[in-house]
Write a structure and sequence with these properties.
By secondary structure, the chain is of the alpha/beta class. The protein has a single domain, classed as NAD(P)-binding Rossmann-like Domain (Rossmann fold), CATH 3.40.50.720. Helix content is about 40%, strand content about 15%. It is built from nine helices and seven strands. It has a seven-stranded parallel β-sheet with strand order 3-2-1-4-5-6-7, with helices on both faces. Helix 1 links the parallel strand 1 and strand 2.
C-alpha cells in the first residue's frame, strides 16, 4: 500500500522489463501511480524530469520504489530529446515500455471561451507538448525496441466531448488520440503496441490548472455509472495490462478508465 492509501497488487508481470516513465510531477501524478504499479510487478524504469525544482520533488519518489535513473528531458527541444534517449540507451540498451504522461497548455487559455481565449502561440505550444511529443517519443523509443514493446499515453474525455474550460487542451488531446492510431499503424509490424488511457478527472496538478477543475472532478464521480471517482488503482491497472504481456494483440486503442462517465448522455438527477 502506498502512503496515500493506494493498493497496488504485487507480482512478476513486469519482471525483466525495462522502460521510461515520463510525467511524474508529485505523489498525486497519474504517472506516479502507474510507475508504482509497474514497480510492484517487477519493472525497472527511469523517470524523466524537467528542471531542478521538479527533480527535487521527483527524486525522493523515485528512490522510494527503487528507481535509480532520472533523466532530464525537455520535449520541446530536439537536443534535449537526443540527449535523453542517448542516456536511456546507455542505461538499458533496449527497453520494453514507455509511459507518456506529458501535457501542457497555458492556464489563461483553460477558461471561458475557446474562440476568444486561444492564441496562435498557445495553441501551437499545447499541440507541441501534448501531442507531437508522443510522436517524437515513439520514434525514438522504437529504435530501442528491437523485440517489440508497448507505448502508453494518457488522454482525457475532452478529446471527444466538449468539456467546460478544457478548450485548447481538448484539441491537443484529440490530436494525441489520432496520433496514437497512426503510430500504432506504423509500429505494429515491429511488434510495438501503442495505446492511450482516457482517465477520468482526478486530483492532479493538471486538473488544478483548469478553471472549475474541482467541480469537474466532483461531477465526474457523481454522474459516472459507478457513482464513484476514478481510482488510481484502476488507471494504473489498465497501464499494467497494456505495458505487460497481458496486452498482447491490443493496439491503437483509447481505453476509458473513468467509472463509466464517458458513456453518460444526461445525468439521472436532471429534473424532468
Amino acid at each position: 500500500m502506498a502512503e496515500d492509501g493506494w493498493v497496488f497488487p504485487k507480482g512478476e508481470l513486469m519482471k525483466g522489463k525495462k522502460g521510461l516513465v515520463m510525467g511524474v510531477a508529485n505523489d498525486k501524478s497519474i504517472a506516479w501511480g502507474i510507475a508504482s504499479q509497474l514497480a510492484a510487478q517487477g519493472a525497472e524504469m527511469a523517470f524523466s524530469y524537467l528542471g531542478e525544482s521538479l527533480l527535487r520533488r521527483v527524486e525522493p519518489l523515485a528512490t522510494s520504489i527503487g528507481v535509480k535513473h532520472l533523466i532530464e528531458c525537455d520535449v520541446t527541444s530536439d537536443d534535449s530529446m537526443d540527449a535523453a534517449f542517448a542516456k536511456l540507451k546507455d542505461i538499458y540498451g533496449e527497453i520494453d515500455f514507455v509511459i507518456h504522461s506529458v501535457a501542457f497548455a497555458n492556464k489563461n487559455e483553460l477558461q471561458g471561451s475557446f474562440v476568444e481565449n486561444t492564441t496562435r502561440e498557445g495553441f501551437l505550444l499545447a499541440l507541441n507538448v501534448s501531442a507531437f511529443s508522443f510522436v517524437d517519443v515513439s520514434r525514438r523509443a522504437a529504435e530501442l525496441m528491437p523485440n517489440g514493446g508497448s507505448l502508453v499515453t494518457l488522454t482525457y474525455l475532452g478529446a471527444e466531448r466538449v468539456i467546460p474550460n478544457y478548450n485548447t487542451m481538448g484539441v491537443a488531446k484529440a490530436a494525441l488520440e489520432a496520433s496514437t492510431r497512426y503510430i500504432a499503424r506504423d509500429l505494429g509490424p515491429k511488434g510495438i503496441r501503442v495505446n492511450a488511457i482516457s482517465a477520468g478527472a482526478m486530483r492532479t496538478l493538471s486538473l488544478a490548472g483548469i478553471s472549475g477543475g474541482r467541480g469537474l472532478h466532483a461531477k465526474s464521480g457523481q454522474f459516472s455509472l459507478m457513482k464513484q471517482e476514478t481510482s488510481m488503482e484502476g488507471v494504473a491497472g489498465a497501464a499494467l495490462w497494456l505495458a505487460s504481456d497481458l496486452g498482447f494483440s491490443t493496439t491503437g486503442e483509447v481505453v476509458h478508465v473513468d467509472a463509466g462517465f464517458h458513456v453518460v448522455g444526461l445525468p439521472e438527477d436532471l429534473e424532468a
